[in-house]
């Protein structure tokens, strides 16, 4: 059963992820305006976790996939439910890039 957050509770996502929300609101390729609003509204924890993971992954993938690969993989695994297949696809993509085409 999903837990609902209320304004009376300390919602750490409002304080801790302000920079991600700002980046997401100015770049529609990371999150839509609706997703940014959901992060601030009283939504269940599962959706907030997934939105934060998606936003963080979007920023890091655009910066440097190889440098931030561990954090990017963590964002796939921390989603509810965990998205192991997407994490494995990231590893396969990196493996093919680093080893080059097979003859």
Separation of termini?
Answer: 51 Å
Anisotropy-based shape:
elongated
Low-confidence stretches: none
In percent terms, what proportion of residues is strand? Answer: under 5%
Number of helices: 6
Q: Work out the number of β strands.
A: 0
**Structural class label:** mainly alpha
Tell me the count of domains: 1
Give me the Rg, rounded: 16 Å
> What would the average pLDDT be, to the nearest integer?
78
Multimer state: single chain
Largest beta-sheet details: none
Helix content: 55-70%
Instruction: Tell me the series of helices and strands, N- to C-terminal.
Output: HHHHHH
List the helices and strands and how they pair.
Blueprint lengths: L11 H5 L1 H9 L6 H8 L4 H19 L5 H9 L6 H16 L4
Helix pairs in contact: 2-4, 3-4, 4-5, 5-6
Describe this structure in words.
The chain has one domain. The radius of gyration is 16 Å and the shape is elongated. Helix 2 packs across helix 4 (45-63), helix 4 (45-63) runs antiparallel to helix 5 and helix 5 runs antiparallel to helix 6 (84-99). The chain has helices at residues 12-16, 18-26, 33-40, 45-63, 69-77, 84-99. With 103 residues, the chain is mainly alpha-helical. The protein is built from six helices and no strands. The relative contact order is 0.11.
